[in-house]
Design goal:
By secondary structure, the protein is an alpha+beta fold. It is 35% helix and 19% strand. The structure holds 2-(butylsulfanyl)adenosine. The site of 2-(butylsulfanyl)adenosine has 16 residues, from β3, β8 and β11.
Length: 703
């Protein structure tokens, strides 16, 4: 391990202090780079902190040593009075937008026509990061200025704030004489954006509409200390004068920027010809929802810098690049009506009925309104023009009304006081946001329970999706869950849309479902707070359903991962005679509970005997999810590193646990290696349950 004495001992001479200071700066910047850019730290947090403390001590004694590239400058100076502006000679251009394939095909034709080239052009495609464009000016490798794009020519000087962003190099990793102007995006990762908004909600402050606004609001602060508290990140995607870096292509430029110490956009690919560009767009679009950062499209750039030069620029945008935008995820439409739907637990959810609107390629007619408080908070009214949003595969939601479009004819939304299905008075438990129908015999709840039981999270019976269940219930073939296992297939074959063949198929599917694990049954029952993971956990601890039904709240709570709420919910469920009857009926109508693999089948437990400790921030897994996966595969999880521990999984910012593991000679895995371990079965085949990595490595495009 590197030596790092402290300045607390004997006083240093000025030249010795300068030498030590230079060495500390070099080391700290190197470790910043390892940690924030490469996500691959070499030393523990404690060791890093010691270096930093020594640096600050030294600068207190010798203030002249605190130059612009000292890591101490990341702490953020005093707030300023106002924002200074900067003028740039090479303006930061904008991009032309394309929204559909033909526009990209046309762009490619335009490029080839302009260059009078027949063959395919090599392009580089990058995600279009939804952030704030900035330019970083380096003099002889040292960061001297950071400014926003502004109107392209005039930007705002945000140098002090820029310095607080840990992935921005204060000094470039390779020597670079003269001036370099690195351009890129300052972004706020999605998770941090959501966290920030939650904090603001709790503090009664206005919310940021999107990560871009949050990044801009965080960077354009007069007080850099505020910026420092926001986990901003920076990705470089160009320079003002690429030729000065001695590279011939944009792809090489990005690699050079990476070597200089900058992060470059993930998913960056080299494409030969327009067809590869179009294919890359489809892939990026699919990945979009899984990325930890918000992207709103793909940027297509001519790779060859010589060709870029020849193409040049129009007034505001270069001819060698275009932004291929993703379909919009927000749109405005009219709120026609509000329906109140009753879920399987009796929860009543208001659903917005909308004038149909095209959103991210899908026609949206309904959106969730969450609950009554949300309706009040947003001040929504019937007839309002509303902003709707569809984020990924999640249900569309109404973001807010557009009050400017009100005509005065809008009407208030009245929340019902009786169940819209069974007319039973609704109940809103104290402290909860949700109205519930307490009638267990409510037909809406029954229907939803059956749908859940047959669905993906439950028994996953092929052929018994939502529509089919609704049809069977309406036709009187089933009225509760056990009826599924007593279904009259002859009558089923007579129903519209069914026939001998499809009825026989369903019969087979139901026959297969009759043998289930305890975990699956528990998940299918839809007990509150018992999702798939908790169901697995219970399965690991109880051999039979009878054992579980007899368990007390205390026994349940003793299981790691089961809290008081869940324990109470499980015992309440099994205390209810109706539910005990349900289990009885299921068993008498042919359901068999198979011995669970987690308890019995040693062959299915590849991690048996292994003990894992997790440290640092995991990117690909939630911490709980990772632990759960280990347990499901028969392994155990410990919270401290000791002799029993066999594997330490180290994420970003791993600290003392990692150091301890190395000291004890325990196997250390990064996330990728951990993932490989999980997905590799004994026979070497990848398991189908393997989570996929969120981000492709940069090198994917290199062939
Ligand atoms: S290149 C001359 N690459 O999009 C080329 N821009 O709509 C100019 N942006 O102002 C930019 N991701 O702030 C480029 N990978 C990327 C980008 C990107 C986001 C932003 C940039 C620019 C805006 C234009």
């Amino acid at each position: 391990m590197r030596h790092h004495g402290t300045s607390a001992g004997k006083p240093l001479s000025a030249p010795a202090a300068a030498a030590r200071h230079a060495e500390l700066v070099r080391q700290i910047l190197h470790h910043d780079y390892r940690y924030y850019v490469l996500d691959d730290p070499e030393i523990s947090d404690a060791e890093y902190d010691a270096l930093f403390r020594e640096l600050l001590d030294l600068e207190k004694l010798f203030p002249h040593l605190a130059g612009p590239d000292s890591p101490s400058q990341r702490i953020g100076g005093a707030p300023r009075e106002g924002m200074a502006t900067v003028q740039r000679e090479v303006p930061m251009l904008s991009l032309e937008n394309a929204f559909a394939e033909p526009e990209i095909v046309e762009f490619d034709q335009r490029v080839r026509r302009f260059l009078q080239l027949q063959g395919p052009i090599t392009y580089v495609v990058e995600p279009k990061l939804d952030g704030l464009a900035v330019e970083l000016v380096y003099q002889d490798g040292v960061l001297t200025l950071g400014a926003t794009r502004g109107d392209g020519v005039t930007g705002e000087d945000v140098t002090a704030n820029i310095r607080t962003i840990p992935s921005i190099p204060l000094r470039l990793s390779e020597p670079l004489a003269g001036e370099a102007r690195i351009r890129g995006e300052v972004i706020l990762p999605l998770a941090d954006f959501h966290r920030l908004n939650q904090q603001r909600l709790a503090a009664g402050e206005p919310l940021f509409a999107n990560p871009r606004n949050a990044a801009a609001g965080s960077l354009r602060q007069l007080d850099p200390k505020i910026t420092r508290q926001r986990p901003l990140d920076f990705y470089a995607h160009g320079v003002a004068d690429p030729a000065a870096l001695g590279v011939a292509s944009h792809y090489d430029l990005l690699q050079r920027l990476h070597r200089l110490g900058c992060k470059i956009p993930p998913f960056t690919l080299r494409c030969s010809g327009v067809d590869e560009v179009l294919a890359a767009y489809q892939r990026l679009l699919e990945q979009r929802q899984r990325l930890p950062i918000e992207i709103d499209g793909m940027v297509v750039k001519v790779d060859d810098l010589g060709l870029q030069d020849r193409l040049g620029a129009k007034a505001r945008s270069p001819r060698w690049a275009i932004a291929y935008k993703f379909p919009a995820t927000q749109a405005t439409t009219r709120l026609i009506d509000v329906h109140f739907s009753v879920g399987r637990t009796g929860a009543v959810t208001p659903v917005a009925i909308l004038e149909p609107v095209l959103l991210a390629g899908v026609t949206v007619r309904r959106a969730t309104l969450h609950n009554e408080d949300e309706i009040r908070r947003k001040d929504l009214r019937l007839g309002d023009t509303v902003l709707v949003q569809r984020a990924g595969d999640v249900i569309p939601e109404v973001v807010k009304p557009v009050p400017e479009r009100r005509t005065g004819n809008e009407r208030p939304i009245v929340f019902p006081d009786r169940c819209p299905e069974c007319r039973h008075p609704l109940h809103r438990p104290a402290g909860e946001k949700v109205h519930r129908c307490p009638n267990a015999a409510c037909p809406a709840q029954r229907l939803q329970s059956i749908i859940h039981f047959c669905g993906k999270a439950g028994f996953d019976i092929e052929g018994l999706g939502k529509k089919a269940v609704e049809q069977l219930v309406a036709a009187g073939l089933i009225s509760d869950i056990p009826d599924i296992f007593r279904l009259d297939f002859q009558r089923l074959a007579q129903l519209p849309g069914w026939g001998e063949k499809s009825a026989a198929n369903l019969q087979r599917a139901i026959e297969r479902a009759k043998t289930a694990t305890l975990g699956r049954l528990l998940a299918a029952l839809g007990i509150r707070f018992v999702g798939e993971v908790t169901a697995q956990l219970l399965e690991q601890h109880f051999a039979t359903i009878d054992e579980l039904m007899a368990a007390t709240e205390e026994q349940l709570q003793a299981i790691e991962g089961i809290g008081p709420q869940t324990a109470a919910s499980v015992t309440a469920f099994f205390a209810d005679p109706l539910n005990r009857q349900l289990i009885d009926d299921l068993l008498t109508s042919g359901l068999r509970i198979a011995p669970s693999s987690a308890r019995v089948n040693a062959g299915e437990r590849p991690l048996a005997g292994k003990v894992f400790v997790f440290t640092g921030r995991l990117e690909r897994f939630g911490r709980d999810e990772a632990k759960e996966l280990v347990k499901r595969l028969g392994g155990a999880v410990a919270s401290t590193v000791g002799k029993r521990v066999t594997h330490v999984v180290a994420g970003a910012k791993a600290g003392s646990k990692l150091a301890k593991a190395r000291q004890l000679g325990i196997e250390v895995l990064d996330e990728e290696a951990f993932q490989r371990l999980l997905t590799q079965r004994e026979d070497g085949a990848p398991s189908p349950a393997a989570p996929r990595p969120a981000v492709l490595p940069f090198s994917e495009g290199e062939t």
